[in-house]
Design goal:
This is Methylmalonyl-CoA mutase. One of its GO terms (molecular function) is methylmalonyl-CoA mutase activity. Its EC number is 5.4.99.2. It is an enzyme of class 5 (isomerase). Keywords: Cobalamin, Cobalt, Isomerase, Metal-binding. By secondary structure, the protein is an alpha/beta fold. It has a single domain, classed as Cobalamin-binding domain (Rossmann fold), CATH 3.40.50.280. 45% of the residues lie in helices and 17% in strands. It is built from 5 helices and 5 strands; from the N terminus they run βαβαβαβαβα. Strands 2-1-3-4-5 form a 5-stranded parallel sheet, with helices on both faces. α3 links the parallel β3 and β4. α1 packs across α5 and α2 packs across α3. The chain starts with 5 loop residues before the first strand and ends in a 5-residue tail after the last helix.
Length: 144
């Protein structure tokens, strides 16, 4: 399949540090993915709106502010309200290990902490997004 993976990278909230988000965005782009970087200080509504407009396969949130539980749950809720909860939601930043099981239970597919290799993030998306495409085709009654 010649389809390229489309990923939206977002920085929700008031956190003004986006170096990590830009590093991830560049690595995904270098791996052949289409990347939309929304910039700093995005609301969950802005993030979901952009994801729907851009028809992305995945949303990556970069959160360093400590408000990860709020932002992930809001983005997940808004995706569900829009009937787009099949968009893969992942993230990274400064997220305590003890919060990861709660995030995964709410539908966050992966959490990448400091020091994660960008190749690990690329490999995760290269594995999981085609699974999403196959499920979409199956739901539409087509062949995967």
């Amino acid at each position: 399949m010649d389809r390229r993976i489309r990923v939206l990278i977002a920085k929700p909230g008031l956190d003004g540090h986006d170096r990590g988000a830009k590093v991830v965005a560049r690595a995904l782009r270098d791996a052949g993915m289409e990347v939309i970087y929304t910039g700093l200080r995005q609301t969950p509504e802005m993030i979901v709106s952009a994801a729907l407009q851009e028809d992305v396969d995945a949303i990556g949130l970069s959160i360093l502010s400590g408000a990860h539980m709020h932002y992930f749950s809001e983005v997940r809720r808004l995706l569900q309200e829009q009937g787009a909860d099949d968009i893969l939601l992942f993230g990274g930043g400064i997220i305590p290990d003890e919060d990861v099981p709660y995030l995964k239970a709410m539908g966050v597919a992966a959490v990448f902490g400091p020091g994660t290799s960008t190749q690990d993030i690329v490999a995760f998306l290269e594995q999981r997004v085609p699974e999403r495409w196959a499920a979409q085709q199956e739901a539409e009654g087509g062949e995967a």
